[in-house]
Amino acid sequence: xxxxxxxxxxxxxxxxxxxxxxxxxxxxxxxxxxxxxxxxxxxxxxxxxxxxxxxxxxxxxxxxxxxxxxxxxxxxxxxxxxxxxxxxxxxxxxxxxxxxxxxxxxxxxxxxxxxxxxxxxxxxxxxxxxxxxxxxxxxxxxxxxxxxxxxxxxxxxxxxxxxxxxxxxxxxxxxxxxxxxxxxxxxxxxxxxxxxxxxxxxxxxxxxxxxxxxxxxxxxxxxxxxxxxxxxxxxxxxxxxx
Length: 242
Known about the structure:
Blueprint: H1 5-27, H2 46-60, E1 85-92, E2 98-107, E3 113-123, E4 126-141, E5 144-157, E6 165-180, E7 183-188, H3 195-199, H4 204-216, E8 228-233
Antiparallel strand pairs: 1-2, 1-8, 2-3, 3-4, 4-5, 5-6, 6-7, 7-8
Helix pairs in contact: 1-2
């Protein structure tokens, strides 16, 4: 059997493709709130493109914690006007890979924020632009500022004799916010940050106490894969002014 460099490249490309598609199938369990990473300067070599996609896919597999309750039963603080505006982010993961996304935060009420996230999502085996909308409110845990972000997922309930029933379930994401001037740093609470998180929290007070205790114990409850840093910029003219 003759073995040539071109045969080697073909085999490598095929093997990498299998790995990428497998990891892509795993990443589809993550919800739209999770940041997505891409690289803008991929070379034209198919093998190099796949090599770039492998760490991308592994990064995507990390998911933020989804809770059935927020840190508070409802809003407890007035909207902070310094958090409002268009925040442009370059999210670094500690390597050469980065993601670009934007958060458009506006006032929904005196104590609620309306949040539009412009980023990326996965459809099939492709990464495409994605826009997601949420509401959120801020509160304090051990003098640290957190935002409870509310989203929703559709559940399809099937039965042997009943027609499939579609229900909307509220879910909450929890993020720590630190603002210095025109820079906003966001740290998301990671999935399974606590043994209790695997079982689920029954009410907001239980969740808040657990986070408070872990912070006092200097436990790392955040996803440190990413460095989420946003810079406030003028809102693009193609976006509707609120």
